[in-house]
């Protein structure tokens, strides 16, 4: 049953460009980008228990890395992608250092400050970042191996499939991380940091790796997003993007594996269903968030799991 | 030197507005433990309430001030029901996410009903000016620090000498014990939100003659208020007052002597530095960090 359902979902996702097109496909692609972002955030916030409101900033750093490298060095997507991951990973390390000293809302606020500095930096350092206008980014283009062109990624459909592959890889990597020794260290730090330290875990290392991993996920998504959206501007990476990612994670269920994925898809697609009430989209998004938080404190997946345990 | 004094005065004007917004935020945090992202929307809606009362209804400024306070108090009651009463016994993320949702909803409600066109409060007072030696300030600006001092003074008097103030302070210290001693916790929570929203609303109204009012002005002001609250020490009113003025002055000096581009960043840089080296805030007593 479970395997059948997953296969069905996978088949629908792969076939989506044949079933629909244009706007709907675009929305689906954005949902998949958010899946990568929330899965990344879930590593540090859901598993390691450290608040972070900086996912939007890492997303932006990834995007700007590819945009600036493409502009100044003429490198393409396949070189910029690892570069973007490394650069955002380093920024994650930078932000992770205060995480060694701070907890709870203090940490939340440092990440908010970091997010805001990055956003304002993108606007102000206009010689480097293009300021408010941002930078145009070309589509990914032809992919060749040993001189032979394998396939060409230019149109929406090709970018959609790449995003899908990307999201699947991201989710798979997250799954492996969470079920590795490192993942268990994160959970130990979340459950009881003092105890984790007492039994000989290096809690500093655990927290830092969680920050770096979560930033790297967002950086990768940022690189892809820049090419898919054909450009980067500072307003795509505000504190509100970070809050949206946090909201998706919480709505789906923090610390559950499937929760953030479901939350990302739901909160991207639900506001799009407003149809002729499109101008109320953001208003309804806000209301939806408040209602879900009040009604489902543990998130959708958390609630489902709880009710199943209650029956068993 | 003259120019320096002028910058200082401008900084104090902006800083006074920060103080009013930040004190509300720090009260709500200190007493109820709610991290309120929608606080900037209290500022924005207060500004609109005032500007629309004056321009659409043609009422005098004092009447507009009464409308702003009444409207903000109602907004505070509404926000308390959502962010505090409905979310009791939950961790901090719940109030952060819920208040983020509320902020998005209020901001877009303002956009849908009032529209994106910027507004500025213009009255007969705008023409008048105050001069202290070399310092020149239009009257509406000069009134902002005065209003700030009056309101903070009032708040202190209420906290110090009234039963409501005592219950507020008792709640801030220990919720359960306060309840056992007969503090009506529900009422105190509501009053806290009303006062917080009122201070932010009045700040927005005062600033509406200085800066343009649009539905998104709350975004930056709430971040500035968080900056002030951290610098002053979470939950510390006097700290917030000093830190707010300081931030206003530092920002003005930064844009005057360094570059305008750094103006909005400088506060956040200071916040990160302070949290790393002095987590209890610049003026706060030593507290637990978690």
UniProtKB/TrEMBL annotation, chain A:
Keywords: Cell membrane, Membrane, Transmembrane, Transmembrane helix. The chain crosses the membrane at residues 25-44, 76-97, 104-123, 160-178, 239-270, 282-301. It is found in: Cell membrane. Pfam families: BPD_transp_2 (PF02653). It is a multi-pass membrane protein. GO terms for molecular function: branched-chain amino acid transmembrane transporter activity. It comes from the Bacteria. InterPro entries: ABC_transp_permease (IPR001851), LivM-like (IPR043428). PANTHER family: HIGH-AFFINITY BRANCHED-CHAIN AMINO ACID TRANSPORT SYSTEM PERMEASE, HIGH-AFFINITY BRANCHED-CHAIN AMINO ACID TRANSPORT SYSTEM PERMEASE PROTEIN LIVM. This is Branched-chain amino acid ABC transporter permease.
UniProtKB/TrEMBL annotation, chain B:
The chain crosses the membrane at residues 12-35, 42-59, 95-115, 135-159, 188-213, 225-250, 262-280. Keywords: Amino-acid transport, Cell membrane, Membrane, Transmembrane, Transmembrane helix, Transport. The keyword Nucleotide-binding does not apply. It is found in: Cell membrane. This is Branched-chain amino acid ABC transporter permease. One of its GO terms (molecular function) is transmembrane transporter activity. It comes from the Bacteria.
């Amino acid at each position: 049953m479970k395997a059948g359902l997953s296969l069905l979902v996978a088949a629908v996702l792969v076939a989506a460009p044949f079933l629909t097109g244009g706007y709907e496909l675009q929305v689906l692609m954005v949902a998949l980008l958010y899946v990568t972002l929330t899965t990344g955030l879930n590593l540090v916030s859901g598993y390691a228990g450290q608040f972070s409101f900086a996912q939007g900033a890492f997303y932006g750093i990834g995007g700007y890395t590819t945009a600036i490298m493409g502009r100044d060095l003429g490198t393409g997507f396949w070189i910029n992608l690892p570069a973007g991951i490394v650069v955002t990973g380093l920024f994650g390390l930078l932000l992770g250092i205060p995480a060694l000293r701070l907890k709870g809302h203090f940490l939340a606020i440092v990440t908010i400050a970091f997010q805001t500095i990055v956003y304002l930096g993108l606007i102000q350092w206009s010689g480097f970042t293009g300021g408010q206008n941002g930078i145009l980014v070309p589509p990914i283009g032809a992919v060749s191996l040993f001189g032979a062109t394998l396939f060409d990624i230019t149109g929406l459909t090709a970018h959609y499939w790449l995003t899908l592959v990307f999201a699947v890889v991201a989710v798979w990597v997250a799954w492996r991380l969470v079920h590795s020794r490192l993942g268990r260290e994160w959970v130990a730090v979340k459950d009881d940091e003092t105890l984790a330290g007492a039994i000989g875990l290096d809690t500093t290392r655990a927290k830092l790796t969680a920050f770096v991993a979560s930033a790297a996920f967002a950086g990768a998504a940022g690189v892809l997003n820049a090419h898919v959206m054909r450009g980067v501007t500072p307003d795509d990476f505000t504190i509100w993007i970070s809050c949206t990612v946090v909201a998706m994670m919480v709505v789906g269920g923090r610390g559950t594996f499937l929760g953030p994925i479901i939350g990302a898809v739901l909160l991207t697609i639900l506001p799009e269903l407003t149809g002729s009430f499109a101008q109320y989209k953001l208003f309804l998004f806000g209301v939806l968030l408040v209602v879900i938080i009040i009604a489902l404190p543990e998130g959708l997946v958390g609630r489902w799991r709880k009710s199943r345990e209650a029956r068993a | 030197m003259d120019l320096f004094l002028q910058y200082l005065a401008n900084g104090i004007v902006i800083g006074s507005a920060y103080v009013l917004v930040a004190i509300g935020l720090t009260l709500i945090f200190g007493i109820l433990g709610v991290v309120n992202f929608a606080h900037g929307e209290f500022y924005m809606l207060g500004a609109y309430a005032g500007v629309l009362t004056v321009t659409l209804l043609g009422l005098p400024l004092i009447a507009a001030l009464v409308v702003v306070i009444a409207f903000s108090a109602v907004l505070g009651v509404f926000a308390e029901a959502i962010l505090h009463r409905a979310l009791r016994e939950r961790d901090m993320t719940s109030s952060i996410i819920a208040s983020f949702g509320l902020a998005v909803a209020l901001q877009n409600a303002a956009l849908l009903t009032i529209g994106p066109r910027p507004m500025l409060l213009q009255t007969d007072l705008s023409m008048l000016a105050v001069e202290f030696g070399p310092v020149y300030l239009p009257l509406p600006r000069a009134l902002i620090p005065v209003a700030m001092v009056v309101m903070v003074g009032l708040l202190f008097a209420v906290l110090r000498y009234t039963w409501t103030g005592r219950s507020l302070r008792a709640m801030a210290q220990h919720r359960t014990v306060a309840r056992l001693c007969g503090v009506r916790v529900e009422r105190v929570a509501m009053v806290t939100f009303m006062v917080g929203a009122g201070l932010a609303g009045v700040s927005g109204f005062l600033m509406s003659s200085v800066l343009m009012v649009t539905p998104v002005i709350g975004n930056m002001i709430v971040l500035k208020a968080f900056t002030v609250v951290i610098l002053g020490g979470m939950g510390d009113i006097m700290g917030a007052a000093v830190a707010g003025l300081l931030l206003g002055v530092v920002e003005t000096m930064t844009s005057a002597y360094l570059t305008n581009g750094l103006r909005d960043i400088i506060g956040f840089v200071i916040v990160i530095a302070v949290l790393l080296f002095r987590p209890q805030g610049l003026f706060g007593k030593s507290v637990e960090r978690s």
